[in-house]
Recover the amino acids of this structure.
């Protein structure tokens, strides 16, 4: 990447990034250059997990990825998880379990829960807590979030 | 500003020949924090190392009994078998790093490159007497991890060099890592320790994190504990038997070796105390403790 223009593959589409400062984080590029506001930014130091996205199927904090280094990778944001009018099973479970209060941490948590359940379809409470330790929620106390994860695990197991 | 995304170590070295002071980014978990905060401006040339095939791989050499880990291997990868089976203390230390998001990005080479006194992988590498291979356009050199870590966030890496890989022995004997912080997850160590037992050689090694300008080994404590242990007195995985009084003496020698400071995370006094507790706790896991001298 040797000029101020590069292309990122986001949610299955090639997106041109123009006029960015090349040191910018993927978080800033997603929000400020590409208008994808679902990914939230809070701490910008990898502590809070609000900006979690998948880069080549790996859950990472987009604030800690220099955007220009993510060329040719498959980036999936919360907007790419499911269409707006058809929530994913994890998104629906968060609604059903009341796991959303102010909602700021929710996109990052949805990304993390999808990643967790893809790797471990039947996590215990300890695993859920350890795997979600990088996503900070200041409203719920986590009880209903853990409940939402369990609901999805059960529903997927019982699905034909 | 230019960002390079090389695929091979040769490409990295060529780029560094042209731009010896290029900013190297591995997982980005340290560098991007400083860049986001404005504490650091990346150089005119940035080289991303996360797609360099040689750095992303590891190999086991049964003949020499060693594992060589590419600098770009992540903590998540270090937590999984077979690496975790050969190097359990490194897996345990990796599990204490940040969160899944951080462990998916952060690398062993990045831990070395940052060289924070609190780097979780570093006490393990020190206790295992790891060697670090540094590559540049002029060739390569191999340094011990002790030589590599010069001071607080200072290393022996020269302009134009990149950390290629780390070689550590696969030992027979208990090993573990422990750290103290304000919570279990997402925590930077206030004090940390790694204990490695080489049972056939009847040796122990202990290295301390966050209690000195860089990771510290404790030669006196190591010699004392190895001499105090009644080796082969109990079934593996325990290395042997040790008297509680000797464990306390070991912890005291570890405290003496520590060189902690007071900062925003803790006081020197607490760090010195805690690192002794960790040392005794680790030794108590690695050996069977008896109240009377055996």
């Amino acid at each position: 990447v040797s000029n101020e223009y590069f292309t990122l593959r986001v949610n299955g589409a090639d997106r041109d990034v123009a006029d960015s400062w090349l040191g910018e984080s993927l978080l800033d590029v997603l929000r400020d250059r590409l208008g994808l506001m679902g990914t939230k930014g809070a701490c910008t130091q990898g502590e809070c997990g609000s900006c979690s996205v998948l880069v080549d199927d790996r859950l990472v904090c987009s604030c800690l990825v220099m955007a220009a280094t993510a060329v040719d990778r498959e980036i999936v944001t919360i907007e790419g998880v499911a269409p707006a009018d058809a929530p994913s099973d994890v998104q629906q479970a968060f609604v059903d379990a009341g796991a959303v209060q102010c909602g700021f941490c929710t996109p990052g948590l949805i990304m993390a829960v999808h990643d967790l359940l893809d790797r471990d379809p039947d996590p215990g409470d300890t695993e859920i807590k350890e795997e979600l330790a990088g996503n900070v929620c200041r409203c719920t106390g986590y009880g209903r979030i853990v409940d939402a994860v369990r609901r999805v695990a059960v529903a997927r197991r019982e699905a034909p | 500003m230019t960002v390079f995304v090389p695929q091979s170590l040769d490409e990295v070295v060529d780029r560094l020949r042209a731009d010896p002071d290029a900013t190297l980014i591995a997982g980005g978990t340290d560098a991007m924090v400083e860049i986001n905060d404005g504490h650091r401006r990346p150089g005119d040339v940035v080289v991303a190392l996360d797609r360099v095939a040689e750095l992303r791989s590891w190999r086991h050499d049964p003949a020499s009994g060693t594992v060589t880990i590419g600098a770009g291997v992540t903590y998540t990868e270090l937590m999984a078998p077979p690496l975790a089976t050969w190097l359990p203390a490194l897996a345990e230390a990796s599990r204490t790093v940040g969160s899944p998001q951080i462990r998916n990005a952060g690398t062993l080479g990045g831990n070395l490159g940052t060289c924070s006194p609190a780097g979780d992988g570093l006490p393990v590498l020190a206790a295992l007497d790891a060697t670090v291979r540094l590559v540049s356009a002029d060739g390569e050199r191999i340094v011990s991890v002790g030589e590599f870590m010069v001071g607080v966030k200072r290393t022996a890496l020269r302009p134009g060099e990149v950390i290629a890989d780390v070689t550590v022995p696969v030992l027979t004997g208990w090993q573990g890592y422990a750290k103290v912080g304000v919570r279990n997850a997402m925590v930077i160590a206030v004090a940390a320790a790694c204990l490695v037992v080489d049972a056939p050689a009847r040796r122990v090694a202990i290295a301390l994190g966050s209690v000195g300008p860089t990771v510290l080994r404790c030669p006196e404590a190591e010699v004392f504990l190895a001499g105090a242990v009644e080796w082969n007195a109990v079934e593996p995985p325990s290395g042997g038997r040790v008297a509680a009084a000797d464990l306390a003496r070991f912890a005291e020698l570890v405290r003496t070796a520590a060189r902690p400071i007071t900062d925003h995370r803790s006081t020197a006094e607490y760090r010195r105390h805690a690192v002794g507790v960790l040392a005794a706790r680790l030794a108590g896991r690695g050996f069977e403790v008896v109240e009377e001298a055996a």
The first strand of chain B starts at residue 2 and ends at 4. The two ends of chain B are 66 Å apart (CA to CA).
